[in-house]
Amino acid sequence: MLRKPGVLLLVLATAFMFAGCDQLKGMFQTSLGSTGSTKTAAPAETGQHAAQPVYGTVLAKVNGDTITLESFDEKVKNLQALSPEIKINTPEAKKSYLNDLITQELIYQEAKARGIEKQKDVKDAVEEFKKGVMARQLIMDETKGITVEPSEIEAFYNQYKQAFASARQVRAREIVVPTEQAAKDILIQLLQGGDFAALAKERSIDASASKGGDMGIINPAEQFDKFNEVIATLDAGAVSPIFKGPKGYYIVKVEEVKGGQIPQLTDTLPDTNMTVYDQIKNGLLQQKQAQRIQDLTDRLRREGKIEIKEELLR
Questions:
Q1: Which of 32, 43, 137, 212 is in the most buried spot, having the most CB atoms within 10 Å?
Q2: Is the pTM of this model over 0.85?
Q3: 97/263 Cα distance (integer angstroms)
Q4: Do 154 and 276 belong to one domain?
């Protein structure tokens, strides 16, 4: 049977990365393979050592210790999240992965038999894992029940709706002349119906003159502040007043405007599957949760006794 190379090494290397890890739970004196299921405990068999009661569907036993179907499925999910290229979705692949887990379990049991769990670095790692699990659970408990009301979402939208607008793209033409009087003469011709492109070719001193003043889509980063300020006020078809710039006196005509529209709350945002409403709701929820945790940590710091020897950090 062909097996994916490296899967066993990956299993062993990531054995203690996930909260559902049976071995670490065993170090905390919980049932090996327990998933918190409400199923009746499977009767333990006598093996090389006493096994704890196991809750769940028995998939395999290794010297009396059990691997449940529930813990197996959780490990598959975690491994594929870590390495999406690994596919464990066929009976053959599942059998292969189960054999890897059995090997992992045998190595764990041997390590335990040798007293490795009593080594300081191992005990420290287990304690850090325990702290992480407990802190994560506290945060979940503390933020449970926090909600966002529709009125809060609507208020946020009304205040910041402009931020949801799509980027405004402007295609424009320009005429640049060296003197203000020349610019005034051209503007009069334009107001009398003169062709902007033809006048740009005839009178403009900018390199764009050969293209009838066509600048293409404007990149604000490539323009000076006054130019961007004027462009922002013009709709498609509008001609600007005269304004001064680095090369002389400018007249600009906006040919086309795309984007810049403000979406409604029910509109789906580009490149997402979320509506504006849902994005605001999620953002406000995360903000409230973060504030709740900040309030908790602030209180704990106020009430706790904290001593720091800053001189040791130099």
A1: 32
A2: no
A3: 48
A4: yes
Distance CA 23, CA 21 (A): 6
135 vs 84, residue with greater confidence: 135
239 within 8 A of 253, measured Cβ to Cβ? yes
Sign for the CA dihedral angle at 172, 175, 181, 187 comes to: negative
Q: Do 48 and 97 share a structural domain?
A: yes
CA gyration radius, the chain: 34
194 and 155 housed in the same domain: no
CATH number at residue 234: 3.10.50.40
Is beta strand 54-55 parallel, antiparallel or unpaired with respect to 41-42? antiparallel
Range of the domain at 78: 7-119
Residue 163 has pLDDT above 90, yes or no: no
Over the stretch 104-125, which tens digit does the pLDDT of each residue have?
A: 999 999 999 999 999 999 999 9
What does the pLDDT read at residue 55?
80
Residue 106 tokens, joined = 């045998």
